[in-house]
Amino acid sequence: MNILVKSGEATTVTTDLLVCLCFEKEKTWSKAIDPVDKKLGGQLSDVRESGEFSGKANQTTLIHINGKLSAKRLLLVGLGTRETLTLEHMRQAMGTAVKQARKVNAKGMACVMPDVPKTIGHLDTVAQAMVEGVILGDYRFTEYRTDQSEDKKILQSCTLLAPTSASQTTINAAAKRGQILGEATCFVRDMSNHPANIMKPSRVVAEAKTIAKESKIRLKVLDRQHMKKLGMGGVLGVAQGSIEPPHFIILEYSGGPKTQRPVVLVGKTVTFDSGGISLKPSENMEQMKADMTGGAEVLAAIRGVSRLKLPMNVTGLLPVTENMPGGRATKPGDILTMLSGKTVEVQNTDAEGRLILADGLAYASRLKPACVIDVATLTGACAVALGQFAIGMLGNDDALKAAVQRAGMDSGERVWEMPLWDEYFEQLKSDVADMRNIGGRGGGMITAALFLSKFVGDHPWVHLDIASTDWSTSERPCIPKGPSGTGTRLLLQYLINRASGS
Predict the structure, then answer these.
(1) Is 2-164 in CATH node 3.40.220.10?
(2) Mean pLDDT (the chain, rounded)
(3) H-type helices in 254-411, by residue range?
(4) Strand bridging mode 471-472 / 391-395
(5) Which CB contacts under 8 angstroms, 24+ apart, belong to 59-67?
(6) 8 Å CB contact between 273 and 288
(7) Which residues of the chain does CATH 3.40.630.10 include?
(8) Integer CA distances (angstroms), 248 to 205, 335, 456, in order
(9) 276 FRET partner, CA 20 to 30 A, in 218, 265, 269, 438?
(10) What does the pLDDT read at residue 151?
(11) How far apart are the C-alpha atoms of 367 and 293, rounded to whole Å?
């Protein structure tokens, strides 16, 4: 989609759909919308006074203008009350507007930037959120459908109407940033939507090679033989049951000084998780094509920092494999020797994500990182604990956790901290190895993170369990049914904040 920023009166803009974002419980229109109402002879006021439109969050009313404005149609979209407004409300309002634009087959839409409280953010922050909402709300995945009739309803452009010509440059830069973040999430959704017979480990490598063509990115891929030499028993153990060879992807973005230690991102990349010998129930198993969402988000983050030209060094690590049953598959009771040298008794082959992440985290420690963040669809326990509106966060450094939490609030992809107390390790003790890979039913999200912590090293580390948020069972304004890509913008916003020193 083409994102544009222009200054000028809403009454004179030529577009298929003019979008006006409005607050609830306000008796007057904003300075930008009031001239529109007057040009329409008070039509907007009539709609509001009749109760047809009150301004509740995501409420919409379509108005046919009949040639009274340069725009063909006008759409009122509610933001809720001014007191309860958040950036996420802005995203959702724009996602709602995009869906309405497609319904009327609009090719372009223009949006009046609302006058929001300064506590929400400056114009640039608001513009970024608005564009993110447009990109996220417009997302569809139709690659495997033979009926392409719905694909003809394409919104080709979205224009933000800057309040002044002086603010146009600032808003334009923010809009580009919002577009990069929104497109990063859509990239993850695409990868997660592809079926596992297409999105094999080799396809993930191909995607990494494409990303490596971006500015200041270097790629290295370790094959099975190289992993054997290094001693990556976790990745190799999980991969044993699959005919698809595993890979370990290393993507390095060098935007900062050579002496600057990198931020390292590690993503769980299981392209299909059958559970292995500890086979999953058949119900909803098709969703396990998205068990590589963490790795996809790391790929998207590396591409994003390159396109944002952030002055920092970031490395992405992806242990990539399938988890399948077979004659060579790891069996319950087998013992694996990990890259760190620690031994793990595999009591459940469906707790495979922590095994490959353990090797990824151990490799990360060799890079002398400034900090490490891993992201993974790790535990069903996370979804049980937090539902679908919060990412589980655990870690060993208060400053890093606070920074990630702030990025979550900024991006609308919120995190909730859970305890990482050593007492939980009692549940992971093994009779025959250093530890086992499951800790029983109680505190499953915590014991999984505690397992990972034993492979981290001394640097700051945060673990993000996105199993609660990676898949949506229903469509929402900015989230489609199916893979959500939630966590992508969180990572990128954290990196943006870190690069700016905020």
Answers:
(1) yes
(2) 96
(3) 293-308, 353-365, 380-386, 398-411
(4) unpaired
(5) 60/96, 60/97, 60/100, 62/100, 62/104, 65/40
(6) yes
(7) 187-500
(8) 9, 21, 18
(9) 265
(10) 67
(11) 24
Enumerate the β-bridge partners of residue 198. Answer: none
* DSSP helix/strand/coil, 461: strand
Strand partners, 415: 391
d(CA 188, CA 209): 16
Distance CA 38, CA 425 (A): 68
End-to-end CA, the chain: 30
What's residue 350's pLDDT?
Answer: 98
How far apart are alpha carbons 1 and 160 in whole angstroms? 13
Catalytic residue list = 280, 354
CA-to-CA separations, 266 to 143, 184, 236, 373, in angstroms, rounded: 29, 17, 17, 6
pLDDT tens string 435-471: 999 999 899 999 999 999 999 999 999 999 999 999 9
- For 187-500, CATH gives 3.40.630.10
Q: What is the per-residue burial (b if ≥16 Cβ within 10 Å, else e) of 3-38?
A: bebeeeebbebebbbbbbbbbbeeeebbebbeebbe
Q: Is the pLDDT of residue 502 over 90?
A: no
Count of beta carbons in the 10 Å neighbourhood of residue 339:
24
In this predicted structure, the answer to whether residue 117 has a pLDDT above a threshold of 90 is no
Compute the residue count for the chain.
502
Q: What is the pLDDT of residues 246-264, one digit of tens each?
A: 999 999 999 999 999 999 9
Tens-place pLDDT, residues 265-288: 999 999 999 999 999 999 999 999
Q: What is the pLDDT of residues 130-157, one digit of tens each?
A: 999 999 999 999 999 988 776 667 899 9
- Tokens standing for 248? 């370990």
